[in-house]
Automatic annotation (TrEMBL):
The lineage of its organism: Bacteria, Bacillati, Cyanobacteriota, Cyanophyceae, Coleofasciculales. This is S-formylglutathione hydrolase. It catalyses: S-formylglutathione + H2O = formate + glutathione + H(+). It comes from the Bacteria. InterPro entries: AB_hydrolase_fold, Esterase-like, S-formylglutathione_hydrol. Keywords: Hydrolase, Serine esterase. GO terms for biological process: formaldehyde catabolic process. The active site is at S151, D227, H260. Transmembrane segments: none annotated. GO terms for cellular component: cytosol. One of its GO terms (molecular function) is carboxylic ester hydrolase activity. Its EC number is 3.1.2.12.
Length: 282
């Protein structure tokens, strides 16, 4: 049994509610926050749940404010949960110094290197503690979970699903960091959170995991062609190549002229919600 999360704010939206919560996380050893959209159907019955992991510099708020996902979630009866992207205010020196590491940049790993190891445990938080908390305190069907995300959160969604195919019945991503062992953002974060041996980074790299994962359902990825991070940081072709190698079904759509922003996400969010609904709402 976990303590009920504390409600911070409540907003009616498309007949349901967007609520913001704070709670004490055992996994991250301190306060964590998340946002949750409860569709109108959740007043009457348990509904499937779709987790969204945000990217660098985001909080639990960006997705709820900018993606425009609630209308479709209300139509299909999907709960949406968006956690913060890292612990905050931990007192760790340097936590706020960089926008691509530390606060706002937890990279969905369980850090093994101090001083991060005791607090920055976003992988276990997202895969275990948060779903357990949601299942206990909100009307969800825990056997019907999907996950998606953007950029760093697209990386997070892919690794969570590939490592836990039974838990996540569907996965998709917007502009994911698809091969973090090979890009500067990933190398910086993994070196600091996991240590300098790239072997220890492998369980957190979607392009490596897919080679051994056996995620037997299709994966959807949208990627804007005008994304300034595409060639140096995101590397979707590396993931695509790995999927081809093992016969993993992947729909990778290059969207002409779209950049890395939430305008891009908002444009294609309906496709992603429908994609998850097809897997979760049967
Ligand atoms: N350094 C810039 C770029 C970081 C960036 O593009 N972050 C993406 C995720 S990787 C994002 O979602 N930013 C927040 C937003 O657009 O609401 C910033 O701090 O916003």
């Amino acid at each position: 049994m976990s303590t009920a999360p504390n409600l911070i704010s409540k907003n009616k939206c498309f007949g349901g509610t967007v609520n913001f919560y704070q709670h004490q996380s055992q996994t991250c050893n301190g306060e964590m926050r998340f946002a949750i959209y409860q569709p109108p159907q959740a007043k009457l019955e348990r509904v499937p749940v779709l987790y969204f992991l945000s990217g660098l510099s985001c909080t639990e708020e960006n997705f709820m404010v900018k993606a425009g996902a609630q209308q479709l979630a209300a139509e299909y009866g999907l709960m949406l949960v968006a956690p913060d992207t890292s612990p905050r205010n931990t007192g760790i020196v340097g936590e706020e110094d960089d926008w691509d590491f530390g606060a706002g940049a937890g990279f969905y790993v369980d850090a093994t290197v101090e001083p991060w190891a005791s607090r920055y445990r976003m992988y276990s938080y997202v895969v275990h503690e948060l779903p357990d908390l949601i299942a206990e305190h909100f009307p969800v069907q825990p056997d019907k979970q999907g996950i998606f995300g953007h950029s760093m959160g697209g990386h997070g969604a892919l690794i969570c699903a590939l490592r836990n195919p039974e838990q996540y019945k569907s996965v998709s991503a917007f502009a994911p960091i698809a091969a973090p062992r090979r890009c500067p953002w990933g190398q910086k974060a993994f070196t600091n959170y996991l240590g300098s041996d790239p072997e220890s980074w492998r369980p957190y790299d979607a392009s490596e995991l897919v080679l051994i994962a056996g995620y037997n359902r299709p994966i959807l990825i949208d990627q804007g062609t005008a994304d300034p991070f595409l060639e140096e940081q995101l590397l979707p072709e590396v993931f695509q190549q790995a999927c081809e190698t093992v016969g993993q079904p992947l729909t990778l759509r290059f969207q002409e002229g779209y950049n890395h922003s939430y305008y891009f996400i908002a444009t294609f969010i309906a496709d992603h919600i429908r994609y998850h609904a097809a897997a979760l709402c049967s």
